[in-house]
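User: Just a sanity check before I run the rest of the batch. Below are the structure tokens for the first item. I only need the designed sequence back.
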């Protein structure tokens, strides 16, 4: 089974979504969706997601 490294947790996982050729595992996607904008983890997710936009604009 093919695994991809998640851009959020850096762990190789077999299932998730691709956004602009970057992989986000199912676990991280589920956690991001339920995270409130006032939660302490929210800025962490934003920072990790910025990898997508940096590559697009490179």
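Assistant: Here's the designed sequence for the first item:
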């Amino acid at each position: 089974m093919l695994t991809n490294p998640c851009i959020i947790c850096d762990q190789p996982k077999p299932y998730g979504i691709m956004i602009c050729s970057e992989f986000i595992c199912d676990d991280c996607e589920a956690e991001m969706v339920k995270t409130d904008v006032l939660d302490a983890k929210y800025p962490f997710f934003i920072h990790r997601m910025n990898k997508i936009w940096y590559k697009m604009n490179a």
